[in-house]
Design a protein that fits this description.
alpha/beta; TIM Barrel; eight-stranded parallel barrel; two-stranded antiparallel ribbon; 38% helix; globular; binds ligand PBG
Length: 328
Amino acid sequence: MTSFPTTRMRRTRSQPWARDLVRQNQLAPSDLIWPIFVHEGSEIEAVTSMPGVNRLPLSEVAGAARTARDLGLPAIALFPKIDDAKKDVSGSEAANPDNLVCRAIHELKSAVPEIGVMADVALDPFTNTGQDGLLVDGKIDNDQTLDLLVAQSLVQVGAGCDIIAPSDMMDGRIGHIRNALENGGHTDTLIMSYAAKYASAFYGPFRDAVGSSGSLTGDKKTYQMDPANGDEALREVALDIEEGADMVMIKPGQPYLDIVMRVKQRFGMPTFAYQVSGEYAMIRAAGDQGWIDTDAVMLESLLAFKRAGCDGVLSYFAPRAAELLQST
Ligand code: PBG
């Protein structure tokens, strides 16, 4: 007799039931947050750099909420493209209680109250500089920006927003916003902090979608993180938790799974990743060429987030993924 291996790794892979039995991670529609774009026009507009993703007019927003509910998606994240005429250096339209985001929040919550509505807090869709903060003498002024972000958060909460999601990376914003929410009696509003957000080239298609790419002066490297750094992400996350974040996010997603894993292991917080526009565009583009199987790659990429430690993922694939998951 030859010596026989007692460990055969293939035993637990040999039958579908065995694979089902030992599977550690599952992806479900309830893991997904669906980011949608709204604009001020009356037509559905395609986002060229994100095939299959549209900018919706307000009249279509209720329909999106019903789609999310029917697919079992727990939450929608809203991003506006406002008219250039409304933009200024301080993004003042962001604090208008009747702005596009607030009207869209209202539409979503009236159509389907049981869906969670998340709104971004950052000035970039509203500034004529394309920057997330207030540009003063060629620099983004951190502390003056904080007051604008608080004003933006409060109008969104006033419109019915459930989750405030600061994506601007100013220092101290979570504490500032949390204070203002508590003082305003909004004690149940959740904050999902874009805690470790990198200065990434993967955001290109998003900036087309919200119309900030044309106007963007310079880059965002003085506030978004250097892709070369990992430890700094842990400090960012620690501060945001201390300041009152309920959930933390890492962004972009797939190239930063090492950060996801470290954050989840260190803090044990509800942890999310954003599969950003460039990640979506790459998968779609290769799939549309017939070079990869879009559906299979999408589901595998989403499952990988869960394996790395995510409790949920923001993904433009959310409705398609939920459809596929429901039918299996
Ligand atoms: C705004 C914001 C950005 C994204 C989400 N919120 C772009 C940026 O910071 O320039 C990117 C999302 C994506 O690429 O899908 N601060």
